[in-house]
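Quiz preparation item.
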């Protein structure tokens, strides 16, 4: 049985391998991730941190997954 971080790695492979139905942002750097954790008053689990680091946010077949990202307008 795979652990949560391994499952995140598998999800990353699936998203990258299915760009016809999946979209993602450019990822999230350590500073932005730390700021989000601080603002929320919590620490992201390692598996979620890995996904946020890779994509920032993503969707698969129209199903959106919450993430951490900044818009080009800095929103």
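Solution:
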């Amino acid at each position: 049985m795979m652990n949560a971080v391994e499952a995140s790695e598998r999800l990353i492979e699936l998203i990258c391998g299915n760009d016809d139905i999946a979209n993602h942002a450019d990822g999230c750097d350590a500073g932005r991730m730390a700021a989000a954790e601080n603002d929320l008053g919590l620490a992201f689990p390692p598996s979620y941190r890995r996904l946020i680091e890779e994509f920032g946010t993503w969707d698969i077949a129209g199903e959106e997954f919450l993430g951490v990202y900044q818009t080009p307008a800095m929103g």
